[in-house]
User: Which sequence fits this backbone?
């Protein structure tokens, strides 16, 4: 039996066939992302390292007691420099670095910075593969990221977890140790991060390092924090150059002015950094800054918030005199503290 079709029917049939032919390709648009993660993982694993630190302490009977800590890191150049967290290596004397292929090296500490919780180790070896550094400023909330590290002393090589960027511009302080510096401008992710992941890379779907995993929220689930790689870059450069970081301080502890904070504290300013503590003997106390002052300008630039204030402060050297404008009880006051080195 033969079928006859009108021209309109033939055109409709062609359209149906064309749509049908394109359906597999449309359904397959998910495939690159699904296959990307295993491919990226295979490509980057040789650059992710496990770090075991060790030191000898003495017990009450003066007997030697070894103490160890586990962390992670990422190789950032072919010379064997490894970027990790400062809290992974601080206070330890010996560093064992293990690659995913099973090779082990003795690590040498180049330098660390407790204020940003970053440190650099170095190993001597051949065929060391470095990972490219991405642009953390381009990360979008909800973007897929991959965390790789060596958590909880689990045998068998690094652990890979996947999540998204849950938030940006977070701050975190150590609740059990007020002397520990507060970390600012962190990325929040729900990719599983556990003890031992510290110092490992957070990667985008290009396989670029966009952050360094650093901490978890112990009282919550699915809340981890990472240091944006754009924040880490200048620290890495300085540690490679001199092994130490020289930074200035004004001697204040502050928080960002938000609409909620302004409403709660009846502030008549919409941006800035609210001073919550003035350090005794510091530059701010010397010129008369007080708690509850709001820093609205620093060096002639309007202060948007705490992260911006720290960024402006980082551009200045110890010994410089800087004009600081504050809002206090409805008045605008100007001070000129002399910055000192933050130790």
Assistant:
């Amino acid at each position: 039996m033969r079928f006859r079709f009108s021209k309109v029917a033939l055109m409709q049939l062609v359209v149906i066939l064309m749509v049908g032919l394109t359906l597999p390709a449309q359904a397959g648009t998910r495939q690159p992302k699904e296959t990307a993660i295993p491919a990226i993982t295979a490509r980057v694993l040789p650059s992710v390292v496990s770090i075991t630190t060790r030191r000898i302490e003495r017990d009450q009977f003066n007997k030697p007691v070894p103490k160890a800590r586990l962390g992670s890191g990422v190789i950032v150049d072919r010379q064997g420099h490894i970027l990790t967290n400062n809290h992974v290596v601080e206070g330890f004397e010996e560093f064992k670095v293990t690659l995913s292929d099973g090779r082990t090296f003795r690590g040498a500490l180049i330098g660390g910075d407790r204020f940003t919780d970053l440190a650099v180790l170095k190993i001597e070896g051949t065929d060391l593969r470095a990972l490219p550094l991405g642009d953390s400023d381009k990360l979008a909330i909800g973007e897929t990221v991959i965390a790789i590290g060596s958590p909880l002393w689990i045998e068998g090589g690094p652990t890979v977890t996947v999540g998204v960027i849950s938030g940006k511009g977070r701050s975190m302080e150590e609740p059990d140790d007020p002397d520990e510096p507060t970390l600012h401008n962190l990325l929040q992710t729900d990719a599983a991060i556990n003890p031992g992941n510290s110092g490992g890379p957070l990667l985008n779907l290009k396989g670029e390092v966009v952050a360094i995993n650093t901490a978890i929220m112990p009282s919550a689930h699915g809340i981890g924090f990472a240091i944006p790689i754009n924040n880490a870059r200048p620290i890495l450069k300085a540690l490679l150059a001199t092994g130490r970081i020289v930074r200035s301080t004004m001697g204040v502890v502050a928080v960002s002015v938000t609409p909620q904070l302004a409403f709660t504290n009846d502030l008549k300013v919409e941006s800035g950094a609210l001073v919550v503590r003035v350090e005794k003997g510091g530059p701010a106390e010397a010129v008369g800054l007080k708690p509850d002052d709001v820093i609205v300008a620093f060096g002639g630039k309007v202060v948007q918030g705490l992260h911006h204030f720290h960024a402006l402060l980082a551009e200045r050297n110890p010994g410089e005199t800087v004009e600081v404008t504050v809002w206090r009880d409805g008045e605008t006051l100007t001070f000129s503290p002399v910055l000192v080195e933050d130790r």
Remarks:
- The two ends are 93 Å apart (CA to CA).
- The chain has seven helices and 21 strands.
- The helical segments are 7-27, 31-44, 86-89, 229-242, 259-264, 283-287, 306-314.
